[in-house]
Amino acid sequence: MAGLSDLEYRPTMARGTAVAVVAAGVAAGAAGFRALVKSRRWHLYGRALRRVPAGRRVAALTLDDGPYPEHCHEILDVLRRRRVRATFFLVGRDVEAHPELVAAIRADGHELANHSYSHRRMLFMRADTIATEIRRTDDALRRAGQTGPILFRPPNCAKLLGLPRHLHRTGRPMVTWDVEPETAPGPAADAGVIVARTLAGVRPGSLILLHPMDQANAATRAALPGIVDGLLEQGFDLVTVSELIAEAGRAQARGSA
Q: Are 72 and 213 in contact (CB under 8 A)?
């Protein structure tokens, strides 16, 4: 009986081990899939603009979502008083709903950029829907006065195949970021923590991600003056993303001269 018991027990162990191995493989695969989908650095086509090589202390503030009437002017006042410019990644439907806010952003010299039309995750979106989401927002930003190439950032940085392929075919980089003080390394609901993370993380050529216009992000709005003041005290010039790209080009030209 002892031998029979062993024979019955061992396959059970093998099945259990196999299930555990498969589960671990699935979990690892899921983690890898999530990492690819949310990666700020890698995607399957084209290039991601996460940080640029810069020859001096220069960085870009990037402000996502909206524009929303509740806090837009408050944010503009902070930037105006400190004479810095930022890049606003705006949602097309909100651009159309609040043209007066977009005009105020543009009048202060900030850059208008594309954050999709509906702010839907663009992970498994059809190719024609991706094109429409981007084109409708481009058109709204052009009507608002934005000239030159329009930068694009996907909602939640979510992408897999269709969106990177569309951007690659149309010659546009996917603008991401390398400093994420609101959520990395973990969610921060304290303004002081957001300021400290930003000042510790910014390097020459950094792109800083913030969401100060969202109603719920009171801590980010409270942190914005400290972020700007702290970076200025560290000797950083705060510019738009397009200006940052141009600065990188000048640094590369100086290096090859």
A: yes
Do the beta carbons of residue 151 and residue 133 sit within 8 Å?
no
User: Beta strand 111-114 with 58-64: parallel, antiparallel or unpaired?
Assistant: unpaired
In sequence order, what DSSP letters do the residues of 135-189 get, joined into one string?
Answer: HHHHHHHHHTT--SPPPB--GGG--SSHHHHHHHHTT--EE--SB-TTTSSS---
Task: Show which residues are catalytic.
Answer: 64, 211
Reference 45, options 203, 162, 151; nearest CA is 162
* pTM of model > 0.85: no
d(CA 194, CA 110): 22
Collapsed DSSP state (helix, strand, coil) of residue 54: coil
Residue ranges and CATH numbers for the domains of the chain are: 48-256 (3.20.20.370)
Question: Looking at the chain, how many residues does it have?
Answer: 257
Alpha carbon distances (Å) from 59 to 63, 81, 170: 13, 18, 26
Which residue's entry shows tokens 């897999």?
A: 160
Question: Strand 87-90 and strand 48-49: pairing?
Answer: unpaired
Enumerate residue ranges in the chain where pLDDT < 70.
1-46, 159, 256-257
